[in-house]
Design a protein that fits this description.
With 150 residues, this protein is mainly α. It has a domain at 1-65. Helix content is 83%, strand content 0%. The longest helix has 79 residues, at 71-149. The model has no long low-confidence stretch (mean pLDDT 86).
């Protein structure tokens, strides 16, 4: 089964983080950030394609960076950052919910296994007592049979 796709926005956010951390964006760094944040590193070819596209876009947008941002542009950028942060939080919460559910299921299975083991031990003890009793009865009957034969 294929892992779920990571959106381009999440990949671009990881690219920005890698650029902010080291000033140099590498596929390995971006995939490590994605793995840490979302539990999925994404496809190699796709990551490098998005990195190349973002670097081309950065070269094209560079002249526009020299003009001051208008109020609506800065507000829009803040809204986009908030939406991205909210999306990251939702992904994070969903991941931990899945992991918590998996751990609960494993704990339930372990408890069931312990109960089954206890029941099996009781059954073995009961059968052992029955076997010992049967062996004693056989020995007694064999002894009586040998006494009658003589």
């Amino acid at each position: 089964m294929r892992p779920p796709l990571i959106s381009e926005e999440l990949i671009k956010a990881a690219i920005r983080e890698a650029a902010a951390q080291s000033g140099r964006v590498t596929g390995v760094a971006v995939r490590a950030i994605l793995a840490r944040r979302h539990g999925n590193r994404g496809g190699v070819a796709r990551i490098y394609r998005v990195i190349a596209a973002s670097q081309q876009a950065a070269h094209q947008v560079a002249p526009a960076l020299h003009r001051p941002l208008t109020s609506s542009e800065s507000q829009q950028a803040a809204i986009e950052r908030a939406n991205l942060a909210e999306h990251r939080e939702q992904v994070h919460q969903a991941r931990w919910a899945r992991e918590t559910d998996a751990l609960r299921a494993r704990a339930t299975d372990a408890e069931r296994s312990v109960r089954d083991l206890d029941e099996a031990r009781l059954r073995v003890a009961e059968l052992s007592r029955a076997l010992a009793s049967a062996q004693q009865r056989i020995a007694l009957l064999e002894h009586q049979a040998t006494r009658m034969a003589t």
